[in-house]
């Protein structure tokens, strides 16, 4: 009953906002029309015995142990076919990309990527069973949220009702690879701008909204709704529904280097939303109902995302390829080799299963933290907006890698036998 009442109240709030506000995208209405998808809690299918490890900055330093046999995971055939296609797309990156997790080398993926080209979707379960083994990083305790490809109202040019500039990456933004200066900082970077002879932090969300980049020719497009655009930035890519009915596809083009702050947790700490409202839908409803306070809350997240226009399949993940709805997850590359399969054994059936780590996220940090991708459309928005799953994660590595890692532990490596 509370859930139905919450949906009804959200619908009234959004209807009131739409009456006098800017044009709303189809996605705005879906906040009211589509409640969070109910999900019956389940017991995680597989839970490894917790192990005591010292927290580390990479998967290797955090310690890894052998996980369950892939054949015991009961991988869904449809999910396996989807994952195989995603893995095949990931292979070129796996063969050339540095693995900051410390778990694999490029050579570890050579044979399995070559084998992947000879398998089709009908044999996908056997492909993963024959070619992979699982490892658990640390205690394996996992938390998964969800993201999707939003579609919001926008315009390529300035127009009444489209007040929110969408910026491309500024040319004065500088990325510094700290690993070039110290081996202890490999995989870490900072972003800023040069002032005089020094590097200073780049503009915050507040400074950008107040016009720090205005008039510099960086306006890629304009959004109708600041709340919708805020969440599009969190998703990292999306589509703009233009006034003529066409769409413009935009993808992640950079970030201002400021730390990401999850406003949901802030709002919860301040008693603004209760646990049942800690979803994208519940947060958006509050922000719309309290526009001045909502604007100030959003500004507490100093992170700002820049965009670029793309065409073709999308959105584009951290590997430079399109991510797959219900098949891709974002992960922290310090703890998961990007491109590797991951099996999540969670307390939600829709999050449980086989995924491919093809993306990263500003809030996706640490061991066994994942963000599941659900594609585009209202249903994807509903699932992603309410996704919160807990359980155990198992990274799938080419067979033979674990033996090498365990051998390294005998000489001072970070693995746990």
Concise description?
With 417 residues, this protein is an alpha+beta fold. The chain has 13 helices and 17 strands. The longest helix is centred in the N-terminal third of the chain and has 19 residues, at 2-20.
Textual characterization of the structure:
- There is one protein chain.
- Helix content is 29%, strand content 24%.
- It is built from 13 helices and 17 strands.
- The protein has helices at residues 2-20, 26-33, 59-62, 77-94, 110-116, 124-131, 205-209, 226-235, 263-269, 280-289, 291-299, 378-385, 401-409; strands spanning 64-66, 132-137, 141-149, 151-155, 164-167, 173-177, 189-195, 198-201, 219-223, 238-241, 247-255, 305-310, 328-331, 341-346, 353-359, 369-376, 389-398.
- The strands form 3 sheets. A 6-stranded mixed β-barrel has the order 3-16-13-15-14-17. A 6-stranded mixed β-sheet has the order 5-9-4-10-11-12. Strands 6-7-8 form a 3-stranded antiparallel β-sheet, with no helix packed on it.
- β10 (238-241) and β11 (247-255) form a beta hairpin.
- It is globular.
- The model is unreliable at 1-36 and 410-414 (pLDDT under 50).
Stated plainly, the CATH topology of the domain at 36-158 and 238-255 and 305-417 is called: Barwin-like endoglucanases
Largest sheet: 6 strands, mixed, barrel
Report strand order across the widest sheet. Answer: 3-16-13-15-14-17
List unreliable stretches of 5+ residues. Answer: 1-36, 410-414
- The fourth-level CATH homologous superfamily of the domain at 36-158 and 238-255 and 305-417 is RlpA-like domain
Radius of gyration of CA atoms, rounded to a whole number: 22 Å
Shape assignment: globular
Going by CATH, the architecture of the domain at 36-158 and 238-255 and 305-417 would be: Beta Barrel
Strand composition percent: 15-25%
Beginning-to-end CA distance, first to last residue: 50 Å
